[in-house]
Amino acid sequence: MLARLDLSEEEIGLYTAQLAKILEYAAVLNQPDTSEVPPTAHVLPLQNVFREDLVGEHLAPEDVLANAPEKEEGYFKVPRVF
Amino acid sequence: MEGGGFKPVRFYDLTAHRLRELLLRREISAVELCRSVLNRIDEVEGRVKAYITLDREGALRQAAAVDRQLQNGRELPPLAGIPFAIKDNMCLRGLPATCSSRILRNWVPPYDATVVEKLKDQQAVILGKTNLDEFAMGSSTEHSAFFTTRNPWDPKRVPGGSSGGSAAAVAAGTAVCALGSDTGGSIRQPASFCGVVGMKPTYGLVSRYGLVAFASSLDQVGPLTRDVTDCALVLNAICGHDHRDSTSVPKEVPDFTSFLVDDVKGMRIGLPREYFPPGLDDGVRRVVMEAVSVLETLGAHVEETSLPHTGYALPVYYLIAPAEASSNLARYDGVRYGYRAPGSEDVLEMFRASRSRGFGAEVKRRIMLGTYALSAGYYDAYYLKALKVRTLIRRDFDEAFEKFDALLSPTAPETAFAIGAKTEDPIRMYLSDIFTLAANLAGLPGVSVPAGLVAGLPIGVQFIGKPFAEGTLLRMGFAFEQSTGHHRHRPPDTPGGDGS
User: Fold this and answer.
1) When you count CB atoms within 10 A of the terminal residue's CB, does the N or C end of chain B come out lower?
2) What is the average pLDDT score of chain B?
3) What is the tally of structural domains in chain B?
């Protein structure tokens, strides 16, 4: 669901087996006691990095749209949403 | 070998600092140098396949601009006129940045990565963009959606990965220096496999702006070069704070060439015993222990130590990196850029179809693993647990660095493996990075320096240092290089010359 991938029957079989092996491998992480250990999401002692709210450089709209698979009148165009 | 002698000088095979001397003495022009490398590309690229995109005209134009500056007697930055290759997950305005993925095959970034901008400021000559495992997920370039790069030392073998194209180009003489990126060893492992120097800087030393994100808390850009001096020169050029990357550290950076001192007397080096397991390849062990003897002879104190949580680094990495990747790769939805599958009825179907056809097998595997590890119900058991064990791995290093200036290990558990040897078994492929992953988890700098050959294939030793101690690593690498000369080994003259 979260991954937003469609898989063929063959892929489902292959990935089920491979991911099960990887998760089995990951089970060793249950060995060390981490009840008193804080998590490291990030190695730097940075919390919030603030900057002045200034107008900076930005890309021209045509540069932003140049790679769009489909566009119309300065907008990205997608199939129906609802 | 450097120098002339009887043979004509192969300019494409020299180091950047040597070429700089020749450029300043006007013994070669930047255009001649550029042509020398382009001719070398014509000669061997068909077999090595390091590049996804070549920009011959752009390279020659930049080289001509450098020559004009030289003629006018202008002072030039240290890397002016030096031919560079850039891994194809970094943005260079106007050239495709494919990440070796079908999903970005036609994407042309409208801006330069900070590291690319900095090379342009140096007036470096950028030759093109090099092959990698798709989105830098892999250890061999076999996960590239386009082709596998060959190891210049043996075309039946992989160059390592994911920065395999960049490492192979430097080894094959099709670039003098290159940039790679390293999330779990992707600069150091291919450097070891291809017999070149490769450094992953401390997390935060080099801006990630314009590097296509894989795992944001682990990714760093770094140099692949022919010797440690060039490594210092490239690091000088690319490092420094960047307001466009909030994780780049606002810190004074030294001139890294000031550390190129041929003296390691009294320096303390630890050998973590977990990096020398009983099953380690004999040839690799021999080469690394010879490196230890060399450093001891030079006056370094080498002592065994322990990083007890090393065994957890691989599973921790393979939960954290895919978790971050699954989030970073959510942006590829076929809306604003990249591949869009045709014929979808609604937008959700379009997302799924574009992603399913656009991503390759390894990327899908990691997205699924990552979304699983982050999903409600499994978050604590997998992702959060991995973050906690990551703390234990960092503490091991903190403790070791109370006693040692650097740690030394093999860069990889083996020399370059045969193409196809590990593609069926993801865990075997992952084990190729077993000695490099922990430095990324702890944010530490690491460098791989050529240490000799095993059965005709190169192998590197890895030095791991304290945060922002790149200078210490460069000094050790430099002293080692000066007394051994392993970095002067070049692949057999014509890669694939046996007709394969």
Assistant:
1) C
2) 95
3) 1
